[in-house]
Each structure stands twice: as C-alpha cells, then as structure tokens.
Prior knowledge:
By secondary structure, this protein is of the alpha+beta class. The chain has helices at residues 14-24, 133-142, 187-202, 219-227, 237-240; strands at residues 6-8, 29-41, 45-57, 63-66, 75-77, 84-89, 92-98, 105-119, 152-160, 163-171, 174-180, 209-214, 231-234.
Amino acid sequence: MFPLNFEQLSVEPLSELAKRLNSAVGDKMIIISGKCTATFDGRIKSFLDEGDRLLVIKRDLSIIMHGPIGVKPLNWQKPQAGPISFSLKEYFLEMITERTKTKEILSIVFSQIAFVALWHAQDETAITIYGDESDLVKYLVANPELIEDGFQVIRTEYNTDVGPVDIRGIGKDGETIIEVKKRNATPADAHQLKRYIEYFTEKEKKSVKGILVAPNFPDKVLKYLNKNYLEAKQIAWDQVFPTIKRSKSAQLEDFFEEKKEK
C-alpha cells in the first residue's frame, strides 16, 4: 500500500498521462520505469539504444536515469538546467528538456511503460555527518572521564597565535590542553601540541600539561612526546564512530562533474 502522498498513474491513454506529468513537473517527483531510448544533442552527441530503465525527475528539475545495474546514471541533468516537458511521439511517450544555457537537448522516449507515479516527497532536513574531528571533540566534552578521571572542560576551540586548541581543561595535574586527531598521530601533530605548550608558557605565562589524543601512536611519535614531557591518549575512534570502508574507485560525485564550459 502506497503512502497518501504517492500516486500511481494509469498508463493509458498516453495523451492524458502526458498532461498529468506536465502538470507535475517541478511540483512532485516523477518516477517512470519501462523500455526507452535516450538521445543527447549538444557539444557531444550520444544515443542510448532501447533498454529497461528507471527515470526519476525531481522537484528541482534534476534528472537521473538508471539502468538495471551499477550506480552510475546512464543520463542525467543538473537542477534547473532547463524546462522539462512530456508529449506523444507517434505512439510513444517522450520526455524532452533543453538546457537553457547551452541549448543542448536530451530526449527520452518510452516505447513501453511498466510503472509511472507521482510522489509529493518532502525532505527539508540537512544531512548530519558524524565522525569528523569536531564530533570527536564533542564526544570527549560529553565524556571527559575518557581523558582522565575528574577532568573538567573549560573551553573548546580556544584560539591562540599558533592555532585553535581543541580542548582546554583542568585535570589531576592542573591546567591541560588536548589536541584531538581522528587518524593515527604524526610527528606534525606532536609538534603542534608542543607549540601550544610553548604559547601558554611564553604568552600566557602558564605551565600547562599537553595530551595528544589519537587512535594509534607510531614509536617515533611516542618518543617525541616523551622527550617533550607530553602525553599520549589512545582512543579507538573507529569503535566510537564506525564507518563504512569505501573502495578506491571513483565516488558517486565523480559521475556528476561536467567539464567547464569554455
């Protein structure tokens, strides 16, 4: 059973279907599955022979057409690139759009339609990405005992002449600054922490303790920290913020890049 804002349309007659689709362009998501061809006429010309496809036209006039396999769209158009209209082409349903700026034309002709629907979809929420270094800082602020028992946070993102300190607080040995890293610690990270210590000593005339937080510490980093009386705190961030490993192949965004117009 479909939700109330989802409407499946009758395929016949095609003339009435074209009218319904035209009235929905820009107002509802349009979803069509069936057999179709696609022709692109512009700076480059292409023809996609008939095959089973899924066409989605979003409310912002972006277009994505997929085949039965893969994540890469077979044809696509960016939002608001040009008007979209439906009409009859002989006995078939044609979607046509002309990109306003470049005058390029994309034509998709359905010889058979298996499914067509309108979806008055609403999604105004912003995506929230967890697991960057600001999230790690927030997690430590909410769980200060991971740093030390009784640790109290004073400030986050405390600005200094050598950069912002992630966390400034009070620990068992007095005032403490924390540098947080999501990846394995590097010598540059340890050196940056040392620069913070020097800033507090020279500019604020305070003796502070420094702790570098990271998931792993190579031996050379530990040696540098020990030599400069700095501490290492190991936290396995991948267990706190699990992530899905991605292959080194191209990402989805790569498929939506166009060459800059001359």
